[in-house]
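Methyl-accepting chemotaxis protein
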Amino acid sequence: MPSNSSSLPARDAELLNSEHEGFVTFARNALASAILNFAAVVAVAAMLWRPDRVPLLAGWVAATAAYSLSMGLDIAAWRSRLYERSPWPMRIVHLRAPLLGLIWGALPWVAGATPDPRENIAIGLVITGMIASGMTRFVVVPRAALIYGVTLSATAILSFAQYSAGTALTAAILLVLYLTFMTRHVTAYGATLAEAVRGRNAAIESSRERSQLQQSALAERDETSRRHGELMEIVTAFRQSMAGFQDVVRRETCGIAASTASLSNTAETTASQAGAARNAAASATGEIDAIAASTGHLNDAIALIGERTYRAGTVISDTVSISATAMSDIAQLSGVMQGITGIVEMIQAIAGRTNLLALNATIEAARAGEAGRGFSVVAAEVKGLAAQTAEASNEIITRIGAIGASAANVTRSIEAIRQAVLDVHDVTHAIVSAVEEQRTATAAMSSNIDSAADHSRQATERVEQAYSAVGETKSEIEKARQAAEIMAEVAGSLTTSVEGFLHRMEAVNARERAA
């Protein structure tokens, strides 16, 4: 198995060197890789512990399928030629997409199937994501990859423990085997690279010795001519490289300038729209606050009306009770007057009989003559008293009749008043019910208006934040534009300096040849 690209065709060696350069570039971004690893751990934990993890699992499957398809097409396009000539860690990197599909289909059942298919999916995804992610990172940064693999392993084992102890043990064994396998091949790959470095150093030393022997054997003129030719080739190649570099810098600078100009215009438009939205939100918030204040006053007024209506209902209820008491008293008065009427009629009867007795006494006194004259006077006096008694009794009966008629009228009036008061009481009760319903509706409306006011204030704050963010974006765009201009100036200065240096080298070379 080769350890370097010396035995490869030129095209394959170039691709393999490009692969190694890509890994070196990725290793320089170890911090970003560590952040992504931590995000992957959090995502796996969330998928296993959240009750609604099925959508998350579906998203993970879609992302994994897209990644596998992309890498499979990449392998089919140009990497297949490098597979046979690559060391084992590189082969694993080349085959990570096919391995991903294989692991996805087999490992959920190897880890221990459960009755719930979602648990099988979760187990397979955790192991798949761990191995697929860990293989790339082991080749690039072994130390960071080891930490990453151990972290994901601990997360997976703790997650599997919530299903069953057997599943957790199986996952732990698989993970230990995986880490052992990867550690062994990474160690072998490191030894291969170290051997390649030692061979390269030995080749350099041997080439240096051969150069010394050739320098002692060749003539000074031929050696000088060769060096001058190589130097001119280097100058020409370097000039062409700098020309290409300047073109790239100029093109990219123009693109950045155009992008920043477009972004600046977009930021201006967004700032204008955000300002209008901020003003509209502030106006809406003020109007909603005014409506909320008016609703509060209306609620207070309705509460006051309800309180006073309730008091009026209480007074009306008391009036009904008093009317009933008055009617009862008048009924008792009618009974008393009827009793008085009976007594007066009895007195009238007694007065009539007394009058008859007086008449009989007068007749008997007239028969007695002179002897009955005194008795006749007494009889006349008794007769007068009986007549007065009868007259007084008639007057009493007349007065009692008038009182009875007045009492009947009063009873009818009180009954009419009581009926009217009952009608007013019913109306007042209806008013109280309506006021209570209105108070409830007004309270609900006031609550809704207060909620709308809160939402409006929150919207105003968010619009204000968006307006501030647009201002910061404009500032950052301006900084990017200035940086692009500075980069263009630096590239121009660098090109000028390099061109001057090359001209001086050509002049020195020409003088040496002339000498």
